[in-house]
Design brief:
Blueprint (H helix, E strand, L loop, with lengths): L2 E2 L5 H10 L6 H10 L13 H10 E2 L4 E7 L6 E6 L5 E9 L2 E6 L2 E3 L14 E4 L2 H15 L5 E4 L9 H12 L11 E5 L6 H7 L4 E5 L5 H7 L2 H4 L2 H15 L3 E7 L7 H11 L4 E7 L13 H13 L3 E4 L20
Bound molecules: iron/sulfur cluster (SF4).
The site of iron/sulfur cluster has 11 residues, from loops.
């Protein structure tokens, strides 16, 4: 079986080339061609013909297929449906923010976390994405839009920390100067609360932004929305978050999808503020987008503003997220696995 070079980190590529009897400094050249978007070894004109042929025989550079692109009339957001080699498909979203172009990528085909408000969870986990498949979402979007992407959020389909090894390779590759050269502080990884994996982020990638999907002020509500909460209750999760902030010195983001009549009352807001007091954090309120199958509805705008003001009054840094791409079902929680 041929090795997909896009899956390898620089170090792994060096080792791979040594195994092929080549000098390891070639890795930098090859790596940089891959992240410039080269789709074949023939394009790597600064490599000898002999090496190109050897690579042709032993390795490959896989590419995602764009199956569909939806453009938002409202704000320039584009939602991509990509086909994987095995027939699975994944979604990614390109967004234009004031601070720069951002791509939200998927880390798994499907997801096994089962959050009740999420379209991605409906068919369960199909499989983990490779580091190359994660990176190729960005490369394909840069090629299609003709625009450079400066910020990455791993917040599409899948639980990134449930695919930690490939996620790590992906982060190293897009951060590498010969790769996409995206700064650690421009990378955000979101988790639904896989507590045992949170210390790994502080140890391996202390500068990236960590976003934790909280969505509730207590276990009884969280258990209903997010089954992971039964395994790792909120106290444990918040303890891990406090430790993370202590170790990294970085502010943590809590995502809180406002679900009408479920987690959006004044009492819920007060309880949330009590739990987060003294923690260096920012709460991102997300008026839930309705996903037909879930039977849950988003909080009305006026109620979201009331909830936001209540937290603010209690000293919590909070904003209501501006929803991009809601007219093309590209907003959070609407990413969906579609089987071929
Ligand atoms: S919200 Fe995220 S973690 Fe939860 S089921 Fe959906 S993709 Fe998985």
């Amino acid at each position: 079986m041929k090795t997909d070079l896009k899956d390898l980190t620089m170090k792994e590529l060096e080792n791979y080339l040594e195994r092929l009897g080549e000098k390891k400094f070639r890795a930098k050249q090859i790596f940089s061609w891959i992240y410039k978007g080269a789709g074949s070894f023939g394009e790597m004109t600064d490599l000898s013909l002999e090496l190109r042929q050897k690579l042709e025989e032993n390795a490959e550079i896989k590419k995602l297929r764009i199956l569909k692109v939806q453009h938002s009339e409202k704000d320039g957001t584009r939602k991509y449906l990509f086909g994987l080699e095995d027939g699975n498909s994944i979604e990614s979203v390109f967004m234009k923010y004031k601070f720069g172009n951002t791509v939200c990528i998927s880390s798994q085909a499907g997801c096994r976390m089962g959050c009740s408000f999420c379209a991605s969870a409906i068919n369960g986990l199909q499989r983990n994405l490779t580091a190359g498949e994660m990176a190729d979402q960005i490369l394909s979007i840069e090629k299609d839009t003709g625009e450079k992407v400066g910020n990455i959020v791993v917040m599409g389909t899948g639980e990134p920390l449930d695919n930690y090894e490939n996620l790590s390779g992906f982060i190293r590759n897009i951060n590498d100067k010969s790769g996409l050269n995206i700064g650690m502080r421009n990378i955000t990884v979101s988790t639904c609360g896989l507590v045992p994996k949170i210390p790994d982020i502080a140890a391996d990638f202390p500068q990236i932004n960590l976003a934790v999907s909280l969505h509730a002020p207590n276990d009884s509500i969280r258990n209903k929305l997010m089954p992971i909460s039964r395994r790792y209750p909120m106290d444990e999760l918040l303890k891990a978050c406090r430790r993370h902030v202590g170790l990294t010195g970085r502010r943590i983001t809590f995502e809180y999808a406002l679900v009408r009549g479920v987690n959006d009352s004044d009492r819920n807001g007060e309880e949330l503020a009590d739990k987060l007091r003294g923690l260096n954090c920012h709460v991102n309120l997300i008026p839930l987008n309705r996903v037909a199958e879930t039977g849950l509805y988003g909080t009305e705008r006026a109620d979201a503003e009331r909830f936001c003001a209540l937290l603010e009054k209690r000293g919590i840094q909070v904003t209501i997220r501006r929803e991009l791409g809601s007219d093309i079902d590209a907003a959070c929680g609407q990413l969906r696995l579609i089987s071929d």
